[in-house]
Amino acid sequence: MGAWPRVGVAVGVACLPPCVVRRAPPGSWPWAAHRAPGHRTGTGHKRPHPEPAARIGTHDGTFHCDEALACFLLRLLPRYRDAEIVRTRDPQRLASCDVVVDVGGEYDPGRHRYDHHQRSFKESMRSLRPDKPWSTKLSSAGLVYCHFGSQILAGLLGQPEDGAVVTALYDKLYENFVEEIDAIDNGIAQAEGEPRYALTTTLSARVGHLNPRWNDPEQDTEAGFRRAMELVGTEFLERLDFYQRAWLPARALVEEAVQRRFEVDTSGQILELSQGGCPWKEHLFQLEQELALPRPVQLVLFPDRGGQWRVQSVPTAPHSFQSRLPLPEAWRGIRDEALSELAGIPGCVFVHASGFIGGNRTREGALAMARRALQLGGDAQRG
């Protein structure tokens, strides 16, 4: 596969639209008090009535991450940029809204109704877009992202909606940002069995903490919902900025290293990256699949910021802590001269206690560590 298109537009927190959340009384409109109907200008001509501001409806009371993100995403669209957000469960007030998320008991994209709580709702990204692999049940955030995400990203990035950049970032943001919110809101566990430790600092958890405490004398949720929208919006745009300016350009670097891997070692199982800090794991897994590599890459070399070199084992999966080929057990937790003497390789600095990474003062030393690990790993498999 050739190099992906380069993107020159940065996305930052400055893209955040102003957060306006109102609890307007039924039938009221935010512009009504500004000018009486039929107001005349000084020239004697009637000034055209301004187009009514759009209204986004969602439920009041305790708020969650999914509707905060759904509302934020909608307000990135030109049609809803200045939209009033109406928080209510009153069916009549919701009926007056242009779009309703996370309340109302219906999913009807033709009428812009995006609730997921009704018993009949079973939609996932895969069911609505068969070209996508994710089968997690959607929340209101996932529904809005599914229907409008490509349009939103195209507008923020100045890229074609059906282009390679928007497609890649759309998938990346769903898999690594939105899907987690969908799963948590729908009560879907990350894995089977009892978790080994508590995970309490997710974005969904931090949004939850913005609600009033049960024993606070003031139980109003409006200010907290505004803060929730700002929180999820900032993190969404910062994540997009990272994926656009750091993750996406890294693919070309990893692809070049894959093509040159036999120049590094005749096994083709050692990769050398010209720059450290590059997010290489997911790109490597994707390239291995796309190029149908006959032998998987086991170890990756790269320079660190201090001018020394690292050798890191490829994980068994992009987000796994398990390594395909950890560095030899005898080296783990040993440092400096003791490690160099044990390994028979000059310049060793360290090997992590789990064996997933080690360091050497020179490229040659790091490569020797990688080759020795490959040799020992092969001996262990044959034994």
UniProtKB/TrEMBL annotation:
Give the top-rank taxon of the lineage listed in the UniProt record for this protein: Eukaryota
Query: What are the annotated GO cellular component locations?
Result: cytoplasm; nucleus
Q: Which InterPro entries match?
A: MYG1_exonuclease
Which PANTHER family does the record cross-reference, listed alphabetically?
Answer: METAL DEPENDENT HYDROLASE - RELATED (PTHR11215), MYG1 EXONUCLEASE (PTHR11215:SF1)
Q: Which family does it belong to?
A: Belongs to the MYG1 family.
Name by which UniProt lists this protein = MYG1 exonuclease
Provenance organism: Malurus cyaneus samueli
